[in-house]
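Z., the sequence and structure:
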Amino acid sequence: MELLAADVDSSIIALWLGHESVNTTQIYLHAHLGLKEAALAKTSPHPMKPMRFQPGDRLLQFLSAL
């Protein structure tokens, strides 16, 4: 995680860890909360107003039958 935070390329990290594929190293990218926070900071809220889901009659009938 420290290497990712220091902007070390994931292919270098994969080699250092002995991973057969860079794809294996991607697991660590998904686990790094700092990267997620930085990505979220670059986004803006969607202009659409949030709506509440309204299930249809067919779905309610299906769920009642369970």
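The mean pLDDT is 85. The first helix runs from residue 2 to 5.

Let me know what you think.
H.
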